[in-house]
Specification:
5-stranded mixed sheet; Helix Hairpins; 17% strand; 287 residues; Heat Shock Protein 90; globular
């Protein structure tokens, strides 16, 4: 009987040791993740200041130069105005991502579902980003198949998703290349695939690419909003909208992000389908 009790105690002790070792290992992994996240947050905040301050400084400097030009120097004024637009575009993109991430962190995101004219919606985004692509000698090759012209979704959040994916494609494409954009819609939903040719994403990074405050480019002077913040926003928005996203990357075929979204239902069942109510992008927006 004593031997039996001793064996039971030894077994329980061994089990407790194993559980304790597993618990300690989990704590170590959690601590490593927290340290990694805190380190990147500090790095991110210090670098993002430059990402915001530099465009502001450029805009102020260029504007001052324009004021000093004469009325007969219209070509120089036009060139400087183009630079101002480019800097303002980048700043707008950065700030929208930061504000979106802040709302997600605070739990203040809700869906605003309206019927969206999907072809107009997609064309408008491509037109707004075309100059950005052309600066790197990139061309958009779009292939749209919309059996349903209107799609019930949150257009502002879908716009953030699509713009972030395209900005990533522009940033990480090799120059003088083509970015392939394939979009389809039906009564079952909307799908979008964006492919760019560039340096492939390592297999190990594909598992963490959508993590908040996880960046793939570790260079001290580079903070890429797409891989550091934009993709996590995309994932959070898609989770809210019951959508999915996958990524494939290889040296031969490039990198392809594919998202699938179902049509959303309005909680109050009050979607209006009149042409005047269809969501079209405001011309006042930079993207």
């Amino acid at each position: 009987m004593k031997n039996t009790n001793l064996e039971i105690l030894q077994t329980e002790n061994e089990n407790l040791k194993r559980e304790n070792q597993q618990f300690v290992q989990q704590l170590k992994q959690l601590n490593e993740r927290l340290e990694e996240s805190d380190a990147f947050k500090s790095h991110f905040l210090s670098n993002i200041s430059n990402e915001i301050i530099n465009p502001f400084t450029s805009i102020l400097g260029i504007s001052q130069n324009i004021l000093s030009l004469g009325a007969n120097e219209i070509s120089q004024i036009h060139a400087m105005t183009t630079l101002i637009y480019s800097e303002a575009f980048d700043l707008d993109f950065q700030l929208r991502n930061i504000f979106a991430a802040a709302k997600i962190e605070s739990g203040e995101i809700t869906l605003e579902v309206v019927p969206t004219h999907i072809e107009v919606f997609m064309s408008d985004i491509l037109n707004n980003l075309r100059k950005k692509a052309e600066k790197r000698a990139l061309v958009f090759n779009s292939d749209f198949h919309f059996s349903e012209q209107t799609f019930a979704t949150d257009p502002e959040k879908l716009r953030m998703i699509v713009v972030n994916l395209l900005m990533n494609a522009i940033t990480f494409s090799e120059q003088k290349n083509c970015i392939q954009i394939v979009a389809t819609s039906s009564e079952n939903g909307f799908s979008l695939s964006i492919n760019n040719i560039g340096k492939p994403i390592p297999e190990k990074d594909l598992k963490v690419i959508f993590d908040r405050f996880k960046k793939l480019d570790t260079s001290i002077n580079s903070v890429n909003i797409g891989h550091g913040l934009g993709l996590s926003i995309i994932k959070d928005y898609l989770d809210l909208m019951k959508g999915t996203i996958t990524v494939e990357s290889s040296a031969e075929k490039g990198t392809t992000f594919t998202l699938v979204l179902p049509p959303l239902e309005n909680e109050h069942d009050n979607l209006l389908m009149d042409d005047e109510m269809l969501f079209n992008s405001s011309n006042s927006e930079l993207f």
